[in-house]
């Protein structure tokens, strides 16, 4: 991004402004040129006073240079942000205080970066308020920040260093295939479900940031995703929800970045909430999820119009070879098409694709979703196959358990759940046929007759409100229907027939027959059911028998459907994607032991991970060489005396997502520093950011499964490693864990891989090396100490003894 031309363009009003709803309606004649513009919050006053004193001293120290604060802009009677926008376009750089998480300020920082203005974040780290939130946010880490304690520190740094460097890569070409970027909220609230349904119904493909999958959004990712988009949607949570501060701060930053780069932006707010003054005029509020469909229409129309007009304009500067290296998105959902180019077909994937495995088992980030989409794409374009990709949300099944199951005996629960899944899956098959097979049905009068039979048989089971939504909405609607139909049965006297009536809207025999006949006449030889997300949010150490029955009954329902279709010479393949711990409960259940053939995802072979990286490097650079050659070309050979790839890999939990993130962080640091390859100093600098990400990821995983233990990892700040067993208890109790929970928390941290077993003299064992079987991990050992995984040591400031 060339500084000269960019500054000239900045001094002209933008062609599109979200506030004006079109071309900017302001004049820039009254704008004042400055050396730097200082952005900061009024609170806390001690920080604001120090910054204002620093500006006074800079006027004295630098003579004729002009230094402005936002208070100098004279915003009385005008739209405040318009004046800030003018000032930003006429300054050489921005000094932004990030001591606290202020939404206005983060919006302005994002806007500044989007304009291509260098930003110097400053922070008084002695003020601990918002320290944890700052770590969870992640966006500012790439920029780094200057730590100050008084006005003199600020003055000395600016006089000595001057303007900070611009750290961002060139803008990305518009992604016409997926022109929307959606910032999801961490909770699947009614509004979030309706938003995603509305986006899917728009017909526009999209990329998303999901904080449940990726805990922190890096600045490089945000910049890449926003600049390659035409429209950006951010979903602001109610401040009463847990995690709202961090999420809404992240959204404010991304919205500012998007507005500066002339994207169409929709800021959706859950409920009527007082908004920060900078962007309150462009926020759209909703009180009911039903309102979202209307609110998203203007954005969709604008993006469609832009798609018809957009032409690719190449960037003016050639990329260096290192800048060309693209590790892709660490969330498989955002790179479904690209996965086809660099997906590594492991043995487990081939087993699933061939129909030999009915379960795919692995930890978060182990690649379950990549296999989900890999199998879907492998079979989805084959006209002889019908593929259903179903991704419900765990909370809908929790509602089923709490509202219905608790009133029935275990045997009746199993019967009810099997009937539930059988009914739901039949309806989904019918729904998919109706939505995707109409055109094919017109090719043959006989086929069209059977297609109409499916529509007719499906009609009595149809919930009109949910039918236009996605699978999550239809699942939730069915659960609500069952709750409404249930009434108040006498549990000890309820019969199987009454359970069936409670589940079904109408008799399903006609639906079953119509589906089978259509699939047969349409020459479908295989029907694939892919089910993911069933266990999202379920606790690890507190999985209830009812939870296990939800999964086991699903498997039983798919076996029942398989037998039905086999009788009609149709092959049904069902694959369920599960966490390790849920699978272990299934294995322990005698009724389900040995029934299913699982594909266990483990990445304990470094060669497979090397091939994963190699394919991504080859695709982005067109250098088709061995991994060893490519690694030597782009990375220094050793870090602190250890081979560099082994150094990076040893700081992950052997999951693809973590390795991709660490490698990408290293490349970003090197590119920022204008290095042609990643040096040792770049890796060590990136390790701190990566370690912070890993710790936040772990905390969020803990929060999903045991909210009361979410702060347990922070009990080990400054700890030595290895640790004696007594050290573990002391640290946890000091951090607020009750004595009776110490063993439970320790085992949970062992299961997650945060803690490991240290075996003298230098062997470290972690759960992922033993398929998360803690007994197997400690097998054969009488005496051992504990260690903290290297992924977390940098963030926690651990000391090796």
Number of DSSP E strands: 22
N-to-C span: 47 Å
Q: From the alpha-carbon coordinates, what is the Rg to the nearest angstrom?
A: 28 Å
In which range does the helix fraction lie? 40-55%
The main pleated sheet reads as: 5 strands, parallel
**Strand residues, percent:** 5-15%
Spatial order of the strands forming the largest sheet: 2-1-3-4-5
Q: What structural category arises from helix and sheet content?
A: alpha/beta
Could you explain how this protein is built, in words?
By secondary structure, the protein is α/β, with parallel strands linked by helices. It is 48% helix and 12% strand. The protein is built from 33 helices and 22 strands. It has a five-stranded parallel β-sheet, with helices on both faces. A five-stranded parallel β-sheet has the order 7-6-8-9-10, sandwiched between helices. It has a five-stranded parallel β-sheet with strand order 12-13-14-11-15, sandwiched between helices. Helix 20 (471-486) crosses helix 21.
Short summary:
With 801 residues, this protein is an alpha/beta fold. The protein contains 33 helices and 22 strands.
């Amino acid at each position: 991004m060339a500084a000269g031309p960019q500054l000239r363009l900045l001094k002209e009003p933008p062609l599109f402004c979200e506030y004006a709803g079109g071309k900017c309606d302001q004049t820039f004649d009254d704008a004042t040129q400055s050396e730097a513009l200082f952005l900061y919050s009024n609170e806390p006053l001690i920080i604001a006073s120090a910054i204002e004193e620093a500006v006074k001293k800079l006027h004295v120290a630098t003579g004729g240079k002009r230094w402005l604060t936002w208070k100098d802009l004279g915003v009385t009677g005008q739209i405040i942000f318009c004046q800030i926008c003018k000032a930003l376009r006429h300054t050489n750089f921005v000094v932004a205080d990030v001591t606290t998480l202020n939404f206005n300020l983060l919006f302005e920082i994002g806007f500044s970066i989007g304009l291509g203005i260098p930003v110097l974040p400053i922070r008084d780290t002695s003020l601990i308020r918002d320290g944890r939130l700052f770590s969870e946010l992640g966006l500012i880490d790439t920029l780094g920040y200057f730590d100050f304690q008084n006005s003199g520190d600020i003055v000395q740094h600016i006089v000595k260093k001057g303007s900070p460097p611009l750290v961002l890569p060139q803008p990305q070409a518009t992604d016409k295939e997926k022109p929307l970027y959606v910032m999801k909220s961490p909770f699947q609230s009614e509004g979030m479900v309706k938003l995603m349904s509305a986006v899917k119904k728009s017909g526009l493909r999209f990329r998303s940031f999901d904080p449940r999958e990726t805990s922190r959004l890096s600045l490089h990712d945000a910049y890449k995703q926003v600049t390659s988009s035409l429209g950006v949607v951010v979903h602001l949570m109610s401040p009463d929800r847990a995690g709202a501060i961090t999420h809404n701060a992240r959204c404010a930053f991304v919205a500012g970045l998007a507005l500066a780069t002339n994207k169409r932006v929709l800021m959706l707010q859950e409920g009527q909430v007082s908004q920060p003054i900078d962007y309150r005029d462009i926020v759209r509020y909703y009180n009911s999820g039903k309102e979202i469909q209307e609110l998203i229409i203007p954005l969709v129309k604008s993006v469609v119009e832009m798609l018809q007009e957009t032409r690719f304009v190449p960037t003016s500067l050639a990329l260096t070879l290192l800048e060309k290296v693209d590790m892709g998105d660490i969330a498989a959902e955002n790179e479904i098409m690209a996965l086809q180019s660099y997906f590594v077909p492991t043995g487990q994937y081939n087993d699933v694709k061939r129909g030999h495995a009915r379960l795919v088992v692995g930890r978060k980030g182990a690649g379950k979703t990549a296999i989900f989409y890999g199998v879907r794409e492998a079979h989805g374009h084959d006209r002889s196959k019908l593929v259903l990709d179903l991704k419900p949300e765990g909370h809908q099944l929790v509602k089923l358990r709490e509202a219905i199951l608790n009133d029935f005996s275990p045997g009746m629960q199993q019967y009810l759940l099997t009937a539930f899944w059988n009914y739901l899956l039949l309806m989904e098959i019918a729904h998919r046929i109706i939505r995707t097979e109409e055109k094919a049905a017109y090719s043959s009068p006989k086929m069209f007759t059977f297609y109409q039979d499916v529509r007719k048989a499906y009609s009595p089971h149809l919930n009109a409100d949910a039918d236009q939504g996605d699978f999550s909405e239809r699942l939730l609607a069915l659960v609500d229907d069952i709750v409404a139909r249930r009434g108040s049965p006498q549990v000890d006297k309820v019969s199987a027939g009454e359970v069936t009536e409670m589940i079904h809207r109408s008799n399903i025999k006609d639906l079953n027959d119509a589906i089978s006949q259509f699939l047969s006449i349409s020459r479908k030889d295989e029907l694939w059911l892919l089910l993911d997300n069933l266990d999202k949010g379920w606790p690890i150490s507190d999985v209830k028998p009812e939870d296990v029955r939800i999964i086991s009954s699903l498997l039983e329902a798919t076996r029942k459907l398989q037998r039905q279709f086999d009788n009609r010479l149709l092959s049904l393949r069902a694959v369920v994607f599960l966490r390790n711990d849920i699978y272990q409960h299934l294995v322990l259940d005698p009724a389900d032991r040995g029934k299913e053939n699982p594909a266990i995802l483990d990445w304990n072979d470094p060669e497979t991970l090397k091939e994963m990286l190699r394919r991504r490097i080859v695709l982005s650079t067109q250098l088709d060489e061995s991994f060893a050659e490519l690694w030597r070309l782009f990375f220094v050979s050793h870090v602190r005396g250890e081979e560099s790839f082994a150094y990076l890999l040893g700081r992950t939990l052997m999951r693809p997502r973590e390795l991709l993130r660490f490698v990408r962080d290293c490349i970003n640091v090197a590119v920022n520093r204008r290095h042609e390859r990643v040096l040792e100093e770049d890796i060590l600098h990136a390790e701190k950011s990566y370690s912070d990400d890993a710790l936040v990821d772990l905390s969020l995983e803990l929060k999903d499964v045991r909210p009361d233990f979410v702060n347990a990892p922070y009990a080990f700040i400054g700890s030595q490693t290895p640790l004696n067993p007594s050290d573990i208890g002391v640290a946890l109790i000091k951090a607020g864990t009750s004595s009776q929970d110490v063993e439970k928390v320790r085992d949970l941290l062992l299961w997650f891989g945060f803690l490991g077993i240290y075996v003298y003299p230098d062997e470290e064992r972690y759960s992922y090396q033993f398929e998360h079987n803690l007994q197997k991990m400690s097998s054969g050992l009488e005496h051992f100490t504990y260690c903290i995984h290297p992924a977390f040591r940098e963030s926690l400031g651990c000391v090796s003894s």
